[in-house]
Design a protein that fits this description.
The protein is mainly alpha-helical. It has four domains: 178 residues, Orthogonal Bundle (Lysozyme); 69 residues, no CATH class; 54 residues, Membrane-bound Lytic Murein Transglycosylase D, Chain A (Roll), CATH 3.10.350; 105 residues, Membrane-bound Lytic Murein Transglycosylase D, Chain A. Helices cover 42% and strands 8% of the residues. It contains 19 helices and eight strands. A two-stranded antiparallel sheet has the order 1-2. Helix 3 packs across helix 4, helix 5 packs across helix 10 and helix 8 packs across helix 10. It is elongated. The N and C termini lie far apart (177 Å). About 14% of the residues have low confidence.
Length: 511
């Protein structure tokens, strides 16, 4: 009995050993076919990390509209002058695809306009030790439009607020807004961004601070010590969505701007900013006045001087540097030299109850027309209480010489005499021209007033310069003419006063 039991136990033990060996051998063999999964059974999926929530839906919408999806994961090696690397993440990728597809036409127009001024901006940035990449911040800010203005009141190429603009040396007042000046505003932006970089030691944080204000980024970093770069900032932190989108927009514009062929954008070459000369102006001077002297459209002067709000130089400035078309400096200098003894002083006046232009003109020995012209208003306009006016004073002391002509290219004396309805002989005599055939562009001619029908037909014009102590009556006795004739010949008002330096035309008999 015991023998049989021992035999059964031995056999059972052997079977167990064989089964164990067989199991080990099968587990070491590779599976030829994967095991079948029951479709009814829920199998957990391994999901990729989703994009940032606020961009996820918009990114999917744009991807559906894309006709040809391009690989934007490779970054073209930047030039040595470029210092900002563009990281490819969902935020930047979203704006790249938006600029290239959904807003392609608008972005291309802005880029073309921006390229007109970009070379000058890049030169200024390089001279101040800034990376050239920062220039595309202006594209995001204004699209290359000097007249761009935000709802908050930011203005110009770099969208400065008035206080920040003044802090960095830009003039912003009722006459001049240098936020529209290309060179001056770019220099101010470079200085401001360098200051922001010195605080945050990161160009992207400096750009975020340029949009949100340095105080906002400082407070955010104090509340969240883990923030050391822009990408550490998340939507739940206290920061505007505008700022969260601002830096990705800048990086997207930068990447497209320096990889235009890759994204299918045409690299157009525009005319750029026209070349110009500089001239110092010491009094109120209207752009249309200068345009008439040099024979160019006033729009050309406005484009060169967009910072002049009222299309004239500021009257209270002792000197203002005006941009003028290249090659016209001598002509304008000659014209201004004729106005040196005609300098008008200006004051600022605040309108009170009962004021009108006639009252103000009488009070300051001014002219209703000149006040209206200086303030771009009509003579009959009413003056609201508190309105600030610029008033030209002592107008009667200024000889208004309306008979100065600057010779233009192609002019002849015959053509000028016909245009002003004066005789060729009078024009030659009054200007003492030794060689009437030789008049050079830029030279100044005195045009005598046309001789009236009732004047002596045999009289010849003489240019007389008023001396100290002269009166109209004294001059009439000197030339044996009537005071009435002198007033009519020179188109003077009946109560006109004359002052030393004034020039009068007198028609006298040859005898």
């Amino acid at each position: 009995m015991n023998y049989r039991l021992r035999s059964l136990i031995g056999i059972f033990t052997s079977l167990l050993f064989l089964i164990a060996c067989t199991h080990v051998q099968m587990s070491n063999e590779p599976l030829i076919h994967p095991p079948k999964v029951d479709q009814k059974q829920s199998v957990p999926e391994q999901k990729p990390s989703p994009p940032i929530p606020e961009y996820k839906d918009a990114l999917e919408d744009i991807q559906e509209e894309m006709p040809n999806k391009q690989d934007t994961t490779e970054e073209t090696p930047p030039e040595k002058t470029y210092e900002i690397i563009v990281p490819m993440n969902p935020k930047v990728e979203y704006w790249i695809k938006r600029y290239c597809y959904k807003e392609r036409s608008a972005f291309e127009r802005s880029l073309y306009k921006f390229d007109q001024v970009r070379p000058i901006m890049e030169k200024i940035l390089e001279e101040t030790g800034m990376p050239k990449d920062i220039v595309y911040l202006s594209l995001v800010e204004s699209g290359g439009n000097f007249n761009a203005i935000s709802t908050a009141g930011a203005m110009g190429y770099w969208q400065f607020m008035p206080g920040t603009a003044r802090r960095y040396g830009l003039r912003v007042d009722r006459w001049v807004d240098e936020r529209k000046d290309l060179e001056k505003s770019t220099l101010a932006a470079a200085l401001y961004l360098k200051y922001l970089y010195s605080i945050f030691n990161d160009w992207l944080l400096a750009c975020a601070a340029y949009n949100a204000g340095e105080g906002t980024i400082k407070r955010l970093m104090r509340r969240h010590p883990g923030v050391t770069s822009f990408w550490d900032i998340s939507g739940h932190m206290f920061i505007k969505r505008e700022t969260m989108a601002y830096v990705p927009k800048f990086l997207a514009a930068l990447k497209i701007g320096r990889n235009r062929q890759k994204y299918g954008l045409k690299d157009k070459k525009g005319l750029g900013v026209p070349s110009y000369d500089l001239i110092a102006v010491s009094s109120l001077l209207f752009l249309d006045e200068i345009a008439g002297v040099i024979g160019c459209p006033v729009s050309r002067l406005r484009k060169l001087n967009p910072e002049l709000i009222r299309c004239c130089t500021p009257p209270l400035s002792k000197e203002y540097i005006l941009k003028i078309p290249k090659g016209t400096k001598d002509i304008i200098s000659n014209y201004l030299s004729q106005r040196q003894d005609q300098h008008i002083d200006y004051i600022m006046y605040t309108a009170k109850r009962g004021d009108n232009l006639y009252v103000i003109a009488k009070q300051y020995n001014s002219s209703v027309c000149e006040i209206a012209k200086a303030n771009r208003i009509k003579v009959e306009d009413s003056l609201p209480i508190g309105k600030v006016l610029v008033v030209p004073t002592n107008i009667s002391k200024v000889h208004k010489n309306k008979h100065i002509y600057v010779v233009a290219k192609g002019d002849t004396l015959k053509r000028i005499s016909k245009a002003y309805e004066v005789s060729l002989r009078d024009l030659i005599e009054i200007n003492k021209l030794a060689n009437p055939e030789m008049i050079l562009p830029g030279s100044v001619l005195y045009i005598p007033p046309p001789q009236p029908k009732w004047a002596n037909a045999k009289g010849k014009p003489v240019l007389y310069q008023v001396r100290h102590g002269d009166t109209v009556w004294d001059i009439s006795r000197l030339f044996d003419v009537s005071t009435k004739d002198i007033i009519r010949w020179n188109q003077l008002p009946p109560t006109a006063q004359i002052y030393p330096g004034d020039k009068l035309t007198i028609y006298v008999n040859k005898s």
